[in-house]
């Protein structure tokens, strides 16, 4: 029997002699590789912390001692050792375990994560609570990566931690990379000062933390030793370890960007399995964005690009390659990215700031105070808008319509397909739309021949795609393509008109008046939360002009959608193309 099969939870682990843990680390790595090869998910980060994970659960008394994993994409080993080995094959599947720590899933998941740089604040909160509640023996540990510790929240928390006199241990897992290589002065400080442990000018010691390191994070006996020593030391402390992302799988070590989340691969050879593109599909929306921006930047010298730590994911990397001086990866720093864009715009440049919809949530005040209020011309390219699939509730980009449309001076639009995305990106530099957000989803678009000559889209103008005589369907974004396919198969195709509204703000008031005059019913459709979204905006307008017909809003219910394939999540919301067709038939 394998050692790993004997571990139901960390108390089993703690019964093992320390000498057997190196064998266990091999088994744990192999287990992660086996499952992720077939089921997909985040790989490199978990492989890099196998020794750390074993050492932490061996030395500390989890779950009584609190352990938080920043971002949480590196917590697969933690899940496997804490009661979820048998369920691990369900990782990120609908109804299965989450790909991130989740409080409702296990008492060992002390804090839910997914977005970066939260762990130090959260663990400090727990440590302060322990002190107030008289739990003086409890230990509090946060594991944070070299890219995540550069995030503003982490710095804010370190500032507090250093004067807190709490029982907190921060483990800085330094593998010199985030998803893409880490950037910035802190990265240079960490990688350039191999002897920052010598006490001279050590940033962390200067912030009042007891510091140990840099230490080899793959030396399991060494780690256990250090953690045992640190567990006996009171006060805030930081252990700096160096690890290799992807450790134990050659390809993952050599190609760390791709093997961050590689998709399916051969568990024996490590080679990626080919992805089968569906016939008739176009490139990913991200690539349409990335390549179009390069074309536009060549035409317009005022264009610059910004990404907070997602050059590959957002495809801003193409601009970084073509115009290195005009593209900025600022690291995990969404708030800085937005205000940086404001500064560039204030000087007359046109920043295209590519941010995942879910991560822009973090920079809401910057968006209002630094950009919109000052009427600055910044183009927010809101990637991963709508349901994102297996990353789940921490990552769905479903709130942006609601949180953006209430901001004065904003223009908010969504392309129905890749050509429209291309034309929107073109239009916002040809004409001044002010502060703009263009939202588009994760993954493949339709239309292989998307690179057509640019056509300007006038601000606030939707378009009629099909006339009808009873019910108007007003779609926003790519789900409009489903409508175009569904309508001919409804019970009465002539009944339905179809409008691609393109803009949530400003709404196309002229077109809406026309629609209200011509149709007895209106249906809206969006890949976003219904509460306060596009449908709400249309309903508010129709109410203001005294529309007497029925309005049906189709969108996501007032809940956090779980993780799973996007098609499954649409099914749960009654929003697959088939579901929508049924709904439309019922309205006739
Ligand atoms: C606020 C926020 N921005 C961006 C991301 C996307 N993201 C997930 S993991 C990651 C890199 C994390 O790097 P690091 O902290 O060094 O951990 P490692 O992957 O190297 O273990 C990024 C940018 C995120 N999860 N949260
Ligand atoms: C953990 C994290 O936040 C990222 O790795 C995220 O999973 C990336 O999502 P995409 O795969 O959509 O780029
Ligand atoms: Mg890292």
Structural description of this entry:
The protein has 24 helices and 19 strands. By secondary structure, the chain is α/β, with parallel strands linked by helices. Helix 7 (about 150-160) links the parallel strand 2 and strand 3 (about 170-175). Helices cover about 35% and strands about 15% of the residues. A seven-stranded mixed sheet has the order 8-7-9-10-12-11-17, sandwiched between helices. Strands 1-2-3-5-4 form a five-stranded parallel sheet, sandwiched between helices. A five-stranded mixed sheet has the order 14-16-15-18-19, sandwiched between helices. It folds into three domains: about 5-255, 3-Layer(aba) Sandwich (Rossmann fold); about 285-440, Thiamin diphosphate (ThDP)-binding fold, Pyr/PP domains (Rossmann fold), CATH 3.40.50; about 465-585, Rossmann fold, CATH 3.40.50.920. The mean pLDDT is about 95. The termini are far apart. The chain is globular, with a radius of gyration of 26 Å. Bound molecules: thiamine diphosphate, 1-deoxy-D-xylulose-5-phosphate (DXP) and magnesium ion. Thiamine diphosphate binds next to loops. Pathway: Metabolic intermediate biosynthesis; 1-deoxy-D-xylulose 5-phosphate biosynthesis; 1-deoxy-D-xylulose 5-phosphate from D-glyceraldehyde 3-phosphate and pyruvate: step 1/1. Its cofactor is thiamine diphosphate; Mg(2+).
